[in-house]
Amino acid sequence: MIKRWSAKAVADRPPSSITPCLVPSGLMLSEKGNTMRDTTKTIAPATPDYAAIKRRQQATWAAGDYAVIGTTLQIVGERLCDAIDLRAGERVLDVAAGNGNATLAAARHFAQVTSTDYVGALLDRGKERAAAERLPVAFQQADAEALPFADGSFDVALSTFGVMFTPDQDKAAAELARVVRDGGRIGLASWTPDGFIGQLFKTLGRHVPPPAGVKSPALWGSEARLGELFPGHRVKASKQIFNFRYRSPEHWLETFKTYYGPTNRAFAALDAVKQAALEADIVELLERMNRGGKHTLIVPGEYLEVVATKQ
Predict the structure, then answer these.
(1) Is 45's pLDDT higher than 60?
(2) Are 186 and 96 in contact (CB under 8 A)?
(3) Which pTM value belongs to this model?
(4) Each residue of 159-188: pLDDT tens digit?
(5) Rounded distance between C-alpha atoms, residue 127 and residue 134, angstroms
(6) What is the DSSP letter of 211?
(7) Fewer beta carbons under 10 A from the terminal one: N or C of the chain?
(8) Domain extents for the chain?
(9) 296-to-25, 252, 270 alpha-carbon distances in Å
(10) Pairwise CA distance, residues 22 & 42, whole Å
(11) pLDDT tens per residue across span 72-114
(12) What confidence category does residue 203 fall into, taking pLDDT thresholds of 50, 70 and 90?
C-alpha cells in the first residue's frame, strides 16, 4: 500500500526524505523552500552513481553475518548444479558466492571451482566450509560487474541469490556471459518479484527507500527481464520453492535483523518508532504467508531457477 501524504506533510519534510513515488512526474522540490517547480524541460534523469551505491551495498553485506542465513539455503545450490547438468571436471565460476552454497555443491561433483565475492569475510566462511569437507576450491575476491577473468574461461557460471543484487544489472549479466565459453551455461537462482522475499524487498523499500534509478534485484526473478539481460542465449526457467523454516515469525525476524545485511541495515537506519512500524509490517507478511500453523513458521519462498546456454 502506498502511503499518501497531505500537502502540508510533504512541505514539512526535508527534501532528502521524499521518495520519487511521492513526487509527481516532472516536478521536484525547489532548492529554495518547499515549493514545486516544473523540471520536465530542464533536468534529465540522473545516471545512478553505481560506484557509491556499490560501496554502500558492500558495507550492507558485510553487516551481520550472512553465512548464518546462507547455510540454510544450501539445497538451492544443489538443485542448481543438477539443473545445469554439471559434469565432473568442468570449470565453474561461482559469482557473488557469499559463503559458498553453489561453490560447495559444484565441488562435491568434482568440478574445478573458483568462488568469488566482493566481501572478503564471506569468502572466508566459504573457505572454512570447503576445508572442513576437504574440497579443492580456489577463492578470489572479485566484483561481479568487473570479473578478473579472460573471455570464455569457464564452462559454467553460477550464482544463487548473489548477482541479482548488483546495482548495474546489464553490466553484471554481460560479465557472466563474457567469461563463459560458447556452448557453456549460466545457472542462476533469483527471488521472484511476487514471492516472499520479493514482497520483503517491497516492505523494506516502503520504510527505507532504495537508491534512485537502481532496478529492483527481484527483476532477475522475471523471465521477461532475463530475456533482456541475456539476448541470444537459450534461456530455460522454472519456478521453485525454498521453505523458510523457523520457530515463529519473531524467531525469523530476530535472525534476519541480526544476520541478514539488508534487514540489519534497514532497522539501523530508523528510529525506534519507525523500527516498530517496520517490524509490524514484516510480522504481518510472515503471518500471512505462514503455512506452518500456530506453533511453527513455514514460509514458501518462490525463486526462479534459470539455465541460460550461450549460443
Answers:
(1) no
(2) no
(3) 0.83
(4) 999 999 999 999 999 999 999 999 999 999
(5) 10
(6) P
(7) N
(8) 50-309
(9) 45, 10, 29
(10) 20
(11) 999 999 999 999 999 999 999 999 999 999 999 999 999 999 9
(12) very high
- Cα(257)–Cα(261) distance, rounded to whole angstroms? 8
- Going by C-beta distance under 8 Å and a sequence separation of 6 or more, which residues neighbour residue 131? none
What SS3 string covers 140-186?
EECECCECCCCCCCEEEEEEECCHHHCCCHHHHHHHHHHHEEEEEEE
pLDDT classification of 46: cutoffs 50, 70, 90: low
Residue 242, all three cell numbers: 525454498
- How far is the C-alpha of 69 from the C-alpha of 53, rounded, in Å? 23
**How does 161-174 read in b/e, with b if 16+ C-beta sit within 10 Å?**
bbbbbbbbbeebbe
| Contact assessment for residue 96 and residue 117, using Cβ atoms and an 8 Å cutoff | yes
Alpha-carbon span 285 to 155, nearest angstrom: 40
Residue 110: burial class (beta carbons within 10 Å; 0-12, 13-18, 19+): middle
pLDDT tens, position by position, 9-42:
433 443 333 233 322 233 233 333 343 344 334 4
Q: How many Cβ atoms from other residues are within 10 Å of residue 302's Cβ?
A: 18
CATH class of 50-309: alpha beta
Please compute, for residue 125, the number of CA atoms within 13 A of its CA located in the half-sphere on the CB side. Answer: 17
Reduce the DSSP state of residue 67 to 3 states and report it.
helix
In percent, how much of the chain has pLDDT > 70?
85
Q: Tally the residues of the chain.
A: 311
Phi, psi of 219 (to 5 degrees): -65, -25
